[in-house]
Amino acid sequence: MSTYKNLIGKDVNFLTTDPDNDAAEGQIWYNSTDGVFKDLIISEAWSAGGPLTTARLDLAGAGTQTAGLAFGGSTPSLTANTEEYNGSGWANGGALNTARNRLAGAGTQTAGLAFGGQTPPITGATEEYDGSTWTANPSGLNTARSYLAGCGTQTAGLAFGGATASPFPSNLSNSTEEYGGSAWTAGGNLGTARYVLAGGGTQTAGLAFAGQTSTARTAGTEEYDGSAWTAGGNLSSAKRQLAGSGTQNAGLAFGGETSTIANSVTTEEYDGTVWSSGADMATGRRVLAGAGTQPASIAFGGLITAVSSLTEEYNKSVNVITGAAWSSGGNLNTARRYISGCGTQTATVAFGGFKPGAGNETELYNGSTWSEVNNLGTAAYSKGAAGTQTAALAFGGSPAVCESWDGTNWTSSPAMNNGQRNFGSCGIQTAALAFGGRPEPSVSAKTEEWNGTAWSEQNDLNTAVRNNMGSGTQTAGLNSGGYNDGAGALSAVTEEYNGTSWTASPGSMNTARMASATNTGGLQTAALIYGGTPSATAATELYDGTSWITQASMATARGQTGGGGTSTSAIVYGGAPPPSGGTNATEEFTAGTSALNIKTITTS
């Protein structure tokens, strides 16, 4: 009789705590603390990633799950926009030279390849990406086409299938072309001409699957060996307008449209011979794009009932991945906008606001419910905020008075020198920072520091803005966005404060906005911006000290909110719309997590 040791080669370990790494995959151990047997197993699942900055369909993708590339597509207008994915969210990259949709891509985030598509007309235009800029290659595809597929690298790309003219599907192509880094040359033709197909692999080991033939959707798969295509295993169902990733021996097919389902959630894995079912996507869609490998892919964009920015990550590993998300918290007792506050997700103080008319209400949040406490001495809105739930400072606003909070009562303090409102703020009760804003009738670049006793003027922001947002500390502050009256436009500019002067950051927000929270919480190198106006947005972005990356969107689009916490555990409350007096809704942000998929072994 075989024993566990004979089969696996190891004894069953007796442990007081579970392993903390993947070395235990497939092993069984006895946890003496819990009194049970456990093991670590591989799981397959899709989880939420940060949304695209520009919702679109008929786009192309390249790269990996932690270094992805999205480019082109329709919003529904044609776009040249390029975005880069870092494993959690997207940031804007350099634009294509030719805006187009229905194109294909290959390569990596720093060496990408875009080819074909429709401008209109249908084009063979080819461009190369170096991580910041696209360069057009005068030698385009020999056969201009749209709705094609591609794979490979920037110097060894493969283009196959597609449509050469409308109407579709009467002008389909079986042509294959190979890219050597400077020009396209003819390769072996596909066995079946098709368009709106998907692909994966390399120039010498390519994979083509699904799509639409001249008569029907197909489940057919073909494999390329560098010169000719041969038939592979069929998908479980015929579909078109799907996306794919991976290699010839480890491919992934997801989304698309079957004859009966407009937006499929189905995922299938290819082992080089047959396709097998994988975990379903959370949201079905078609004309999307993908990138990555079979065990680690991303799906982005596409069409649900409207053009989508949705991103999902596919992981086949011993870790359970949970995407970042906003969830509902307890409602404020008094709905309002232009509310201010500070603290953490589980210990916040919120004060003032517009309901309509200035309010003096103060409320405390304990992580689940708000409770009313002693009011501000002076009703006001659009105030700056700094500190914690038990030691806060409320300053400026309309009217521009300063008050200190000790956890129970408000006490009057000296007012700011410039009497701003609608400005950014950060810091603690004894070391606060205020910057920008609007002392009527003009917009301001003024910066002031509070030392616990008095306010003093410091070096100005480089650009005067109002309704801007603040994060960080008095010696490491961050100014984000706002409204630039001089330019007459919303700002995406970011500036960093070192305790003496402001310096423009190389990273600008992906979504220009104003009137999120005056103090959004977080640090200069790890800040979170959420919501904003004038067109209420739910967009959320994370600043890492260099660039802004998209994160999960709020459930309720709004601006003029209060907020706080950290970049991984934030809170937002109040704001508008709806209605004009504001909302009482609260949402809590939790960053994505990864945990080992440890299971308890039972006899049932």
Write a concise synopsis of the structure shown.
This protein is an all-beta fold. The chain folds into 3 domains: 4-40, no CATH class; 45-323, Kelch-type beta propeller (Neuraminidase); 326-590, Neuraminidase, CATH 2.120.10.80. The chain is built from 1 helix and 53 strands.
What features would you describe in this structure?
The longest helix is centred in the first third of the chain and has 5 residues, at 4-8. The strands form 14 sheets. The chain has a 4-stranded mixed beta sheet with strand order 1-2-3-53, with no helix packed on it. A 4-stranded antiparallel beta sheet has the order 4-27-26-25, with no helix packed on it. The model has no long low-confidence stretch (mean pLDDT 95). It has 3 domains: 4-40, no CATH class; 45-323, Neuraminidase (6 Propeller), CATH 2.120.10.80; 326-590, Kelch-type beta propeller (Neuraminidase). It has 604 residues and is mainly beta.
